[in-house]
Inverse folding.
DNA sequence: AATAAAATTAGTATAATACTAATTGTTAGA
DNA sequence: TCTAACAATTAGTATTATACTAATTTTATT
């Protein structure tokens, strides 16, 4: 799998972190990324070229590969977010920090570290560990 | 401080990780980064623009700020490298992985995590924790 | 001084990022 | 159904980081 950029990571996470059952809109993505829609569309195109999403009748569909990559990012995120909160960093700050590198962590590495720190499922604040 | 890129990070680390007392040569930097000299020179120029290094009579001098940034990278590197090796990842692999994100870690975050995991000075292999 | 090695300049290219302006498409209300 | 509003897309431009080759200049070493 080709490496993602920070923007591509944020975009993929934005697409898959929607609560609603409706597929996310481009304008909503643009909003979440704080860019204009042509810029968002550009990121979308790159994610498509990397086969992480597909355009299915005007709708953004995340591919199997895309879901896999997303899960790996989430696992790495959870892992390091937990580490940071356990080190005394606030959940918000931890999330903000970890976003900058979770997508760079090798999945195998994340999984080993996650075991090492005891597979945390919840942040120590009792809040479910959220990615975005 | 402006954010560094991966290349700029590698370059700064290369410059300051030389054993010899002689200032590093451009060709040596190019070699370490596996790029041609014009490319290396380009990175050097960007580091200069960010006031991390200076050209002092044809010699590359690292500024106070550059040394500070370097130390922060090293601390973050040591911190996460230790975490990874403690999780059962080989030192070589840990180093390789951590290089990809150590320069993105907030120094304050690194310092807190470092305390949390017990301020490791040595890798569990008994080798001094090396950055490059 | 002559040659070899190193550094630099000039020129080109690509990928990622981001914008505006203009156009096309869609949709919901009158 | 028509149209106004909103959404998506295209076209065009710009910047930054990255990287190359070829040519030139500078610096060392015999």
């Amino acid at each position: 799998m080709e490496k993602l950029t920070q923007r591509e990571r944020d975009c993929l996470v934005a697409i898959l972190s929607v609560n609603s059952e409706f597929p996310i809109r481009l304008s909503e993505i643009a909003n979440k990324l704080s860019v204009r829609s042509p810029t968002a569309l550009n990121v979308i195109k790159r994610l498509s070229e990397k086969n992480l999403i597909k355009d299915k009748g005007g709708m953004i569909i995340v591919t199997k590969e895309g879901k896999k990559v997303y899960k790996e990012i989430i696992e790495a995120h959870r892992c390091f977010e937990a580490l940071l909160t356990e080190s005394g960093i606030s959940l918000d700050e931890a999330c903000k920090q970890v976003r900058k590198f979770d997508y760079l962590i090798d999945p195998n590495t994340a999984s080993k570290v996650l075991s090492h720190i005891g597979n945390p499922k919840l942040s120590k604040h009792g809040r479910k560990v959220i990615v975005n």
Residues 25-27, 37-38, 41, 58 of chain B lie near DNA strand C (CB under 10 Å from a C1'). The interface with chain A takes residues 83-84, 86-89, 93, 97, 100-101, 104-106, 109, 112-113, 115-117 of chain B (CB under 8 Å). Strands of chain B lie at 53-56, 59-62. DSSP finds six helices and two strands in chain B.
